[in-house]
Design brief:
Number of helices: 15
Number of strands: 31
Oligomer: single chain
Strand content: 25-35%
Radius of gyration: 30 Å
Helix content: 25-40%
Largest sheet: 9 strands, mixed
Distance between the termini: 28 Å
Structural class: alpha+beta
RNA sequence: CGGGGCGUAGCGCAGGUGGCUAGCGCGUCUGUUUUGGGAGCAGAAGGUCGCAGGUUCAAGUCCUGCCGCCCCGACCA
């Protein structure tokens, strides 16, 4: 491809709206342009990269027996009502305004299950792995960070249909391995974490993560190999436990203590002796939740403990009405109204605790959960913190920000049951199909790669994602010798099967070198007058900025050693 | 949805206490000289100042409403 005729609008200056490196560079290198918040066009150079990623996805999905579909983005709303996901998705789903009964699909479990219901009737039809690479629509409240969070984006989504839970395990593991191969082939540094299934339903789920400050997810990782999304992460911190003897319950004035830190500073308590109380309205019922000291309540854990996402913190007015005190003086004893009380596992059967007296300006000390109040249930509700011992071998946990690249779920029968997708077993009994669902954010692969591979000059591509194999640069196209030699080398490279971006523009060397470094193709071949007169061309490696001179006639042979050949396509 | 910032040429920005013909840098076009790290000179084109309404002799500038974009938070398979 000759750059003089190729639409690659590079930017010398940083676009003001972009904050994260990948977003800035994708705009500057002419890969994408924004059309609206969370909506992007892919320009020719970027689309080449996108297609390289898509090829890898296709090859690896085909390799595990996946069959490629293309499902519609426009969906009848009825099918979403049948699975109860119109409510579950809420505002995230786009609804068509001028045609009744249509929505834009944010994911495709419903459509897949619809087709399975139509045509999967016997155990002989199973298992199946169905996938597609297609555009999803989600009405994100706040798109951000370029293509990392968009209202319209491309997803590789696949769905497994099995006749048994063992079959689901096999399909799930096939995807696990395929995803590892995909991200490894894309040369990403990634890790896998245990994750929450959230509104998807289902049992097990894992996420593929790339550590990045641009990420919106937070993960706990440890040297032992422990890795979990903070939403579900646990540690092996010892519980508070009991002290003997259990001292007498005592109310004491705390007029200037509103927070846990106030109590520590003014009265010399240690953090672990304190029991913090928060009140949530869960399924319209108030619940008092006790946490150790300054531990943070994890709402995802709360969701799984209570099996609902219909909860919210109580308002200050509700708080006073329910407990008889304002925030800062609330506790499990002497509550004005009788409500359910739950506590974090670390406080199980503990004593010697300090908590609010449900009377402004007073606390109790020496609280014994077995003696002084009734705890209805204990759950793991706390958010793990940096440095805590990991559950595998106690090695210290590190908290990192990460970008979610992919997510794999064991769905089970939620969708097959609600849509009636059943099959007959070999004894003629009907069962719901057992499903899994597996997604990869296609654009995120590209953004993550750039997050991990750039410097102050621009992107540093690597094979196989690079938009071209070689960036050929003629230093002065107006010189006849250079023009002729460059054209000849361009043709030779193409004949040898290389994808070449040839900068044949009449620009100064500085412009060409800077654009080449910004675009970031791994190998630049530079044709300059002095070198070519002596029969040499110059090879420059983008990543290291190393240069070497090669005799022109040995160029192709040399390139065979430094450019990896592409693996044969799977069929 | 709450808080903050911004909207002026293709891009990055100034002007903002109302007052000459709305500017600067980059880019673009023409000519010319240049050619190994974002060239020099000379000339030129390019604007409903986000939209609508209002105040005024006069609005890019003041007022009201709306729209859009970015950031923080909330939210989020």
């Amino acid at each position: 491809m000759k750059l003089s005729q190729y639409f690659v609008p590079t930017l010398k200056e940083e676009p003001s709206e972009a904050m994260v490196p990948s977003h800035k560079l994708m705009l500057r290198a002419g890969l994408i342009r924004q059309v609206s918040a969370g909506v992007f066009s892919w320009l020719p150079l970027g689309f080449r990269v996108l297609n390289k990623v898509i090829n890898i996805l296709r090859e690896e999905m085909n390799a595990i027996g996946g069959q490629e579909f293309l499902l519609p983005a426009l969906n009848p709303i009825e099918i979403w009502e049948q699975t109860g996901r119109v409510d579950a998705m809420g505002d995230v789903m786009f609804h068509i305004k001028n045609r009744e009964g249509l929505v834009l699909a944010p994911t495709h479990e419903e459509i897949i299950t619809y087709h399975a219901r139509q045509h999967i009737q016997s155990y002989k039809d199973l298992p199946q792995i169905w996938y597609q690479i297609q555009t999803k629509f989600r009405n994100e409240p706040r798109p951000k960070s370029g293509v990392l969070r968009c209202r319209q984006f491309i997803m590789k989504d696949s769905y497994s249909l099995d006749l048994s839970w063992e079959g689901l395990d096999i399909s799930y593991n096939k995807h696990l391995e395929a995803y590892k191969k995909i991200f490894t082939r894309c040369k990403l540094n990634f890790f896998i974490v245990g994750a929450s299934s959230g509104a998807m339903g289902g049992s097990k789920s894992q996420e593929f993560m790339v550590e990045s400050n641009a990420g919106e997810d937070v993960c706990a990782i440890a040297p032992s190999g422990y890795a979990a999304n903070l939403e579900v992460a646990t540690s092996s911190l010892p519980p508070v436990g009991r002290k003997e003897p259990s001292l007498q319950l005592e109310k004491f004035p705390t007029p200037n203590a509103k927070t846990i830190d106030d109590l520590i500073n003014q009265f010399g308590f240690i953090e672990n002796e304190l029991a913090k109380s928060v009140v949530y309205i869960i399924n319209s019922e108030p619940v008092l939740i006790l946490m150790r000291g300054n531990d943070e309540l994890n709402e995802t854990k709360l969701q799984s403990a209570f099996g609902t996402n219909k909860f919210r913190p109580a308002t200050p007015e509700e708080l006073f009405e329910i407990t008889g005190a304002n925030a800062g003086s609330i506790g499990p004893i002497n509550l004005k109204t009788k409500i359910k009380i739950v506590a974090d596992n670390l406080l199980k059967d503990a004593n010697g605790l300090v908590s609010g007296a449900n009377e402004d300006g007073y606390h109790y000390k020496n609280i014994d959960f077995l003696r002084d109040c009734h705890i209805d249930a204990y759950y793991d509700l706390r958010t793990v913190r940096e440095g805590e011992p990991c559950p595998i071998n106690g090695s210290p946990i590190k908290i990192v920000k990460a970008i979610e690249l992919g997510h794999i779920f064991k769905l089970g029968t939620k969708y097959s049951e609600s849509l009636g997708a059943n099959f007959l077993d070999n004894e003629g009994n009907e069962h719901p199909i057992i499903m899994g669902s597996y997604g990869i954010g296609v654009e995120r692969i590209i953004a993550c790669f750039i997050e991990q591979n750039h410097d102050e000059k621009g992107i540093i591509w690597d094979y196989p994602l690079t938009p071209f194999d070689i960036h050929l640069i003629s230093v002065n196209i107006k010189t006849e010798l250079i023009r002729n030699e460059s054209e000849e080398i361009y043709q030779i490279l193409i004949k040898n099967g290389y994808e070449v971006l040839y900068d044949d523009r009449d620009e100064t060397p500085g412009v060409k070198f800077n654009d080449a470094d910004l675009i970031g193709i791994p190998i630049q071949i530079i044709i300059g007058e002095k070198n070519i007169k002596n029969g040499f061309v110059e090879i420059k490696f983008r990543r290291t900025q190393q240069r070497e001179l090669i005799r022109k006639e040995k160029l192709i042979e040399h390139l065979k050693h430094i450019i990896p050949s592409q693996p044969p396509n799977f069929q």
